Amino acid sequence: MHLAILMTNTDESDFAARHPKDGEKFADLIHMARPGWQVSVFSAKDGVFPEDIAAFDGAMITGSPASVGDDRPWIAPLMDLIRDMHARKQPLFGACFGHQAIALALGGALGSNPCGWVQGLTLNTLQKTPPWTRELPDPLGLYGSHKECVSALPDGAVQTATSNGMIAGFTVGQHIWTTQHHPEMSHEFISALTKEMQGMLPEEVFAQALESLADRSDQARFAEALARFFEQGTR
After folding, report:
1. Could you tell me which residues come within 8 angstroms of residue 115 by beta carbon, excluding any fewer than 6 positions away?
2. Which domain holds residue 13?
3. Count of structural domains within the chain
4. What is the CATH number of the domain that holds 92?
5. What is the phi/psi pair of residue 142, to 5°?
6. Please, which pLDDT band fits residue 116 given cuts at 50, 70 and 90?
């Protein structure tokens, strides 16, 4: 299996320089379940895309502090790539920014999270679970860090998870799967990120985030579900 990782994270801060890049995080996530799989990272946020996405067995779109609604030159090519993969029913997974980009590219809509900032461990209630997720716990614990969300699904999409009333994931057919949250983040990283964001977050959100991090996410079980998603999509 050979997957493309489309890296959209625009953070070039000193904090980001001290931690693994998103390409490495997503590679580690899939290798947690399938250590022999090959991955290639493309810095989509710098306008670098695969010459031929069809040469890959599937792709993952990372998170980003950028907004899908931003007028950045690399976002339009990314949206075209999403629509191309969808037309060919090529397996595609998106997390946070990736989740939102897929929704918007296929005709959905975005909005501000009605609960404001989401930070720390989130609990996701599973809905209409596709086959590859049936061994996930319910609720599913994933780390989150965002203030935008998908407000309307694309035609043909099925919501697969909800979190505080928000669309927390969806599928389109058997070839697209998304989550609003960050399965790639380790506990060490989300803890460091939360502390880094202390001055940006409302005090109550920061306190709640720290409290939530007393528990760990279901990262390893999500990694197995993600591997099964790609396996069933390439049969």
Report:
1. 164, 165, 166
2. 2-233
3. 1
4. 3.40.50.880
5. -135, 150
6. confident
